[in-house]
Structures are given as structure tokens and as C-alpha cells.
Q: What sequence folds into this?
């Protein structure tokens, strides 16, 4: 793993090179959440001599009646760090776009019986979509975030700063800290976004980042960076969906016997593979194996977790970081953030991809993402059909 | 007290530390004297007596009668109790505290404008009063800019209307309420002197405990119960009495009234020095609130072009705690209604600090705060010029 010194050298060198190429200091807009990762990101870039402006993205948050400006604490935390670092700070209001890109997508997917991943959509459409566009419109050369990921932007941006078209695509690489690697959430970034995005923390371990936070006097930066579906907040996904989809009682049916074994308040609330919260007594080890959204029926099967395995996956809506599809063949995949990479083989079809696992893998709910790697590189991925 | 040692505290309008003498008065009722005042045995009866003595002390401090005082869980509840007792039209200032504005908005109401110093004209109150107006509510002192309203003159307006109605054989009542939470301990809060019929006070603003307040209502004013239950507080506000809190409140108010003149003079001296320093360093700074009719501990100052929230964060790093003009910085739509009402442009409102002095302020720490504020504001102007 790289050291803080190496990261500092990398940043200072890149900054000096780009400054020489462009004849001015590169301007970076850093997405700040108030958490320790994005705070250290801003501090490292400022220390390396970049012209840094902090930015808070005001995204859509579930309205809770009687609660005033629920994002106030996060915004204040982010701004407090920016002020401590003596950085300019801006607030970008993306509530409408966020609502469209993430919330509406989430509801539509659930209605269709799938289990979507809103964080991936948020990155694709909001952070590395409208936020990047706003940054470029406002005269910034790059955006930066506190994601644990590496990229080849430090080399590929040379031409960009000199005003020349990029000679080769920017590649996305796994973080040095394998346990923190966040490329799973980034696989739908477009190449144009990747070429304009800095991930300064990619070479560092979380412990390094915490130590740096101390060095920068940012020990008070909020400990936890936000995880999960931020806008749902404390309400939980069920309460959130209930605002958009009225409860619809239906049957839970044993897939093998055809018996009705229980009832539910809406098939939308169930995920393939789910075992908890089915409300079926009687000692059977039921898990959800299938849903029929048209008849609002949840099908379950009695069995051990090992019974619910898959040999492979069909993926739709592929996204490739370098733009075009890679060649088929040996690869590694993961189907959720933090999962150890699994050996697999990739077949690239016209509209769909096929992943064959080297060893049977837990079944994956439709709507989830499968992200494909080859060595250190994250190639892209698709959505489980 | 840690806040004394670690911080220079310039936000007394937001919260005040518990006075040691108040804490001492409360202590027995938080430990050995825990009895329910409604219980029949002797120790409980003693607690009941202490509670009623506290009520009497509170009444005495504002020149009222014990039976006219309802103990509540703070100013917001007192205001709700006052407004809930009247069904008709209400007249309030547009710069009132959120609880007054919310209570007014829930019924037929008129918001009365103030001038650029935050001062209301009694004539404008008179003009807003309708034949069906039952309640006029005017805060004694504004919590943001410190302007103190001419309550005596306003009470004459209300009294004249009451006289007119009686003369014309009209039985619709009209009363004057004041939320005096911000004034106690700095300006006169004698009910008769102010000429009010109802008064709200809050222990938390005068070095007493939080979540304790009172509504004083002249015996001729009929209040309507808000919290139903065991019939405590003459049935107006049921719930087992907060004995420790009320005893503390009584001690705090008694001290505030006794020390008022001396403390007001001391705070005015410190405030004026602070104002001089800041205005000398930044001639473009704008001081809000009425020059003369202003709380002695209050200084509202705006630095054009500055983002005041950045100053708050810079100052907290060097141990100075101040308030801003903006209640919720996250949302530009919630810029202070008080500053909007006095006609302050948004760019200026965003650059405003609310500095409120109090017990924790000394000549030394106020002078030090002035230096640190000047440094922080200067740093911001420099950053913006880069």
C-alpha cells in the first residue's frame, strides 16, 4: 500500500506538471460531506498547491413533516472544514435532479419488482454527472471526491491541461486498501467524467487518512462518512416506499407445494433471497425465490441458504469505463460493495452480458449491479436481469 | 465553569449558564425533597409550600399576584397558552419570535410592521386593531437586534380600545401580551409599569434552568386550559409540578430583578466598547437595532460581503462563540425574518453577527473577543480579495 508521503508527492508532482502545461494553477472543486474522507481529500489537494474550492451537494432528502432543513448538520460540518482549511466554499442545489435521477429511478425499479442500487445511480447521474458539469461550467478543471479508488488521471490529464485531446482513456483502478475499495459504486462513471475526476485517497489506507486528519487539524471531522441510501435517512426503505406505493395485501406461496403459507402487505417490499421479516411461522426456513408483481405474489422456498445459488448471471444495461466493451474471457466480479472478488468468465453479447462464475455464487436479486474487474482494473459492469 | 474557562461566550440571547446560586436553590428538590407536592404527608406538604413560595416570589418579581402566575415548560408553552385563550383576531409584530408568529398564523391575524430600527409605532398598533381583535402581542425586546418596544404607549392604545368597547356596550375583551423572555434582567419587567395584561417569561434566558417558564395573566383575564389531566396550575396546565425548576426560576428571576440596574449598566459599557472597536476596524459595518431603545447586552452587527457563518466557524476555532443573523444557514429561504422586516438587504443579512453579552462577559474577555472577531473578519476579506 502507498504511504501518505507517496500520495503527497503524486499530488504535488501532478499539480506542478499541469501548472506548467496550462500556465496556471489547476482548479479543483472538491465534493465535501463533512466526513473525514472528503475533508482529507480537500486538505491534501490544497496542501499540494491546487486551487481548491469546497462544495456541498444539496440532494433530495425525504421530507419529514415538522423537520426544518434536515441537511443543515451535514452542510455545516462540510463548511466548517472548508473554513478551517481557509477554502472557498459553495453550495450546489441538486434537489430536483437528484429526485429525478435517483428517487424516481428507485421507486420505478421497486415497482417493477427489482432491487436497485441508488448509490450507483447517484454517482453516475449526480456526482459525476450534473455536479461535474456544474464544476466545468464554473471554470474548474477537475472535481475530486473522497472515494477510495485509483485512476490513471494523473497521467492522462497531462494532455488535457495542455489543451490537447486525451491521448488515451483514463482507467479506473481498485483502491490500494482492498477493504475500502469503492470502485463498485463507480462502475457507471462515464469516460469523460473519469478523465476529469481526482481520487486522491486511492493509494491510502483508512488508517492513513485518519492520521492525516489529525495532521491537518481535522480530527473533529465527522467520523462516519455517509453510507447507504442517504435520502431515506432514518425512515427506512419500507417507510420510504410506502409514501409512493400504497400497501397491497397479497399471498406468500410455497413455490414447491403451491400452498399459501402467509400474507404480505406488498410484494414490492420483498427482495429475492430475503429470509427475514417474512412473517411465516412453523419452523420452515423459507426464503424469497421469486416475485410476481402482476399478481402481487411472493414465492418462497424452504431450504438452507446454500440452496439459493447461481451458476451465472445475465446482465443488462452494460456500462464500460473506457467507453467500449472489453473482450470476453477471464475476469473477476463482485455483486455488492466489499465482496471479495470472485473468478468468473465474461461473454459480451449484443445488448446483454453473461457472467459464468467459476464457483457457484449466492443468487443476486434483479436490479442489483455486477461489477467486472480484470487485475487491478475496474472495467465496468451491468445490472442483473 | 468550563464555558468560562474554555470559551468567550457571546451568545447569551440563545442560552445562559445556570447561576451557581440557582443551582444551589434547586439542589434539594432534585434529591431528598423529591416528593409529589400533591401528596398528603408532611414532607410533601413542605415541598408544596416551597413550590408555592417560588410562585409567590416569581409574582412578586414582576409585581403580580401568586394566583396570576401559571408555571409552564418554557416561553413557547406560555405563548401557546396565552394565544389559546382567545378566539378572535390577534395583532402581533412581524419581528416576533417564531412561537408568537406560529400561534398568530393559526388564527385570524394582522402582522404590524416595524421601522428600520425594529421599533413599532403605537399608532400602527392602533390602526391594526379591529372591532374583533382580542389579543395584541408585542415582544418586550427583540431576540436578534435587541430593540426594546414602547410597551407603555402600546398599552395606552389597548386600554383606549377597551374603554371604547365598554362605552359602546361591547363585551369583546382586548388584552396586551408581551413575550418578555429577552428583556428580563436587562430592562424593567414590572407588569404594571409596562401596562400589560399578560406576560411570558423564560428561566433559561436568565441563568435559570431550561424548560421552565411562566405566563402571568392579570386576574381579570380568563385563560383556557391547554394541558388536561390532574388539574394542577388551577387546571390550566396539568402535570406534576416541576418543583426544582420552579424554585430555580424564582431564584433566577429574583436575582435578575435585583441586579438589573447594575448589570444593565455594566453590559452597556462592555457592549459599547465592543461596538466601538468593531466599527473602528470596519467603518463599513452596519449596526442594527434602535440606538437608544436597545438591550444593553445586545450588539447586532453586519459586515457587508462577508459570509457570517464562516466567521462563526473561524471564531469557534479560537474559542469565541457567537450567533449569526441566519437561523438556518443550510437554507437561504430561511434567512432571518427580523432582518428582512427591518429592510436589511440579503447580502448584508448574510454577513451579520449577533453578539449578546451577559454574566460570562468581562472587560478582559470582551476586549479579547473584539480582537479575535476583527482578525477573523479581516481574514475573510483577505481571502475574498485573493
A:
Amino acid at each position: 500500500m502507498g504511504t501518505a508521503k507517496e500520495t503527497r508527492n503524486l499530488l504535488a508532482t501532478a499539480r506542478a506538471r499541469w501548472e506548467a502545461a496550462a500556465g496556471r494553477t489547476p482548479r479543483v472543486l472538491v465534493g465535501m460531506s463533512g466526513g473525514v474522507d472528503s475533508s482529507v481529500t480537500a486538505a491534501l489537494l490544497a496542501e499540494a498547491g491546487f486551487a481548491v474550492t469546497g462544495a456541498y451537494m444539496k440532494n433530495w432528502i425525504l421530507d419529514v413533516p415538522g423537520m426544518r432543513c434536515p441537511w443543515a448538520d451535514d452542510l455545516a460540518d462540510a463548511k466548517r472544514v472548508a473554513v478551517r482549511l481557509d477554502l472557498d466554499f459553495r453550495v450546489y442545489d441538486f434537489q430536483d435532479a437528484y429526485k429525478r435521477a435517483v428517487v424516481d429511478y428507485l421507486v420505478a425499479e421497486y415497482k417493477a419488482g427489482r432491487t436497485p442500487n441508488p448509490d450507483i445511480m447517484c454517482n453516475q447521474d449526480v456526482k459525476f454527472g450534473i455536479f461535474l458539469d456544474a464544476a466545468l461550467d464554473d471554470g474548474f478543471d477537475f472535481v475530486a471526491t473522497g472515494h477510495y479508488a485509483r485512476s490513471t488521471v494523473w497521467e492522462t490529464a497531462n494532455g488535457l491541461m495542455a489543451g490537447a485531446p486525451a491521448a488515451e482513456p483514463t482507467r479506473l483502478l481498485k483502491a490500494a486498501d482492498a477493504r475500502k475499495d469503492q470502485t463498485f459504486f463507480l462502475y457507471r462513471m462515464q469516460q469523460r467524467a473519469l478523465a476529469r475526476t481526482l481520487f486522491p485517497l486511492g493509494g491510502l489506507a483508512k488508517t492513513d487518512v485518519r492520521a492525516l486528519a489529525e495532521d491537518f487539524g481535522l480530527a473533529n471531522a465527522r467520523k462516519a462518512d455517509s453510507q447507504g441510501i442517504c435520502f431515506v435517512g432514518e425512515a427506512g426503505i419500507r417507510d420510504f416506499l410506502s409514501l409512493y406505493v400504497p400497501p397491497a395485501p397479497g399471498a406468500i406461496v410455497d413455490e414447491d407445494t403451491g400452498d399459501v403459507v402467509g400474507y404480505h402487505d406488498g410484494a414490492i417490499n420483498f427482495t429475492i433471497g430475503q429470509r427475514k421479516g417474512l412473517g411465516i411461522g412453523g419452523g420452515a426456513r423459507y426464503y424469497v425465490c421469486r416475485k410476481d408483481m402482476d399478481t402481487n405474489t411472493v414465492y418462497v422456498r424452504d431450504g438452507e441458504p446454500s440452496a439459493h445459488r447461481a451458476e451465472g448471471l445475465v446482465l443488462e444495461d452494460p456500462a464500460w469505463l473506457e467507453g467500449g466493451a472489453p473482450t470476453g474471457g477471464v475476469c473477476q466480479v463482485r455483486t455488492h460493495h466489499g465482496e471479495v472478488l470472485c473468478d468468473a468468465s465474461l461473454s459480451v453479447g449484443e445488448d446483454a452480458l453473461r457472467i459464468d462464475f467459476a464457483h457457484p455464487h449466492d443468487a443476486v436479486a434483479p436490479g442489483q449491479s455486477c461489477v467486472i474487474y480484470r487485475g487491478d482494473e475496474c472495467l465496468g459492469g451491468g445490472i442483473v436481469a | 465553569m468550563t464555558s468560562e474557562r474554555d470559551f468567550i461566550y457571546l451568545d447569551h440571547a440563545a442560552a445562559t449558564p445556570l447561576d451557581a446560586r440557582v443551582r444551589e436553590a434547586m439542589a434539594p428538590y432534585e434529591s431528598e425533597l423529591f416528593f409529589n407536592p400533591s401528596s398528603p404527608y408532611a414532607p410533601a406538604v413542605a415541598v408544596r409550600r416551597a413550590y408555592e413560595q417560588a410562585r409567590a416570589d416569581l409574582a412578586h418579581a414582576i409585581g403580580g399576584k401568586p394566583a396570576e402566575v401559571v408555571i409552564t415548560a418554557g416561553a413557547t408553552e406560555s405563548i401557546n397558552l396565552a394565544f389559546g385563550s382567545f378566539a378572535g383576531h390577534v395583532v402581533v409584530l412581524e419581528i416576533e419570535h417564531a412561537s408568537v408568529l406560529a400561534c398568530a398564523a393559526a388564527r385570524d391575524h394582522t402582522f404590524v410592521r416595524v421601522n428600520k430600527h425594529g421599533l413599532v409605532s403605537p399608532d400602527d398598533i392602533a390602526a391594526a386593531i379591529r372591532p374583533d381583535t382580542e389579543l395584541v402581542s408585542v415582544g418586550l425586546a427583540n431576540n436578534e437586534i435587541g430593540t426594546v418596544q414602547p410597551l407603555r404607549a402600546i398599552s395606552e392604545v389597548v386600554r383606549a380600545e377597551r374603554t371604547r368597547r365598554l362605552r359602546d356596550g361591547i363585551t369583546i375583551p382586548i388584552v396586551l401580551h408581551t413575550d418578555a423572555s429577552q428583556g428580563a434582567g436587562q430592562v424593567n419587567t414590572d407588569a404594571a409599569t409596562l401596562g400589560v395584561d399578560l406576560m411570558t417569561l423564560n428561566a433559561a434566558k436568565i441563568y435559570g434552568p431550561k424548560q421552565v417558564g411562566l405566563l402571568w395573566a392579570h386576574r381579570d383575564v380568563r385563560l383556557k386550559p391547554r394541558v388536561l389531566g390532574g388539574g394542577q396550575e388551577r387546571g390550566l396546565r396539568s402535570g406534576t409540578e416541576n418543583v426544582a425548576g420552579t424554585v430555580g426560576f424564582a431564584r433566577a428571576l429574583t436575582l435578575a430583578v435585583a441586579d438589573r440596574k447594575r448589570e444593565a449598566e455594566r453590559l452597556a459599557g462592555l457592549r459599547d466598547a465592543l461596538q466601538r472597536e468593531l466599527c473602528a476596524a470596519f467603518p463599513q459595518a452596519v449596526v442594527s437595532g434602535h440606538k437608544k431603545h436597545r438591550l444593553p447586552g445586545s450588539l447586532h452587527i453586519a459586515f457587508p460581503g462577508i459570509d457570517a457563518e464562516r466567521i462563526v466557524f473561524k471564531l469557534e476555532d479560537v474559542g469565541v462563540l457567537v450567533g449569526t443573523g441566519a437561523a438556518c444557514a443550510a437554507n437561504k429561504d430561511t434567512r432571518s425574518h427580523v432582518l428582512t422586516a427591518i429592510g436589511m438587504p440579503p447580502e448584508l443579512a448574510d454577513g451579520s453577527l449577533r453578539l449578546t453579552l451577559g454574566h460570562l462577559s468581562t472587560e478582559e474577555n470582551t476586549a479579547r473577543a473584539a480582537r479575535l472577531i476583527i482578525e477573523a473578519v479581516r481574514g475573510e476579506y483577505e481571502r475574498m480579495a485573493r
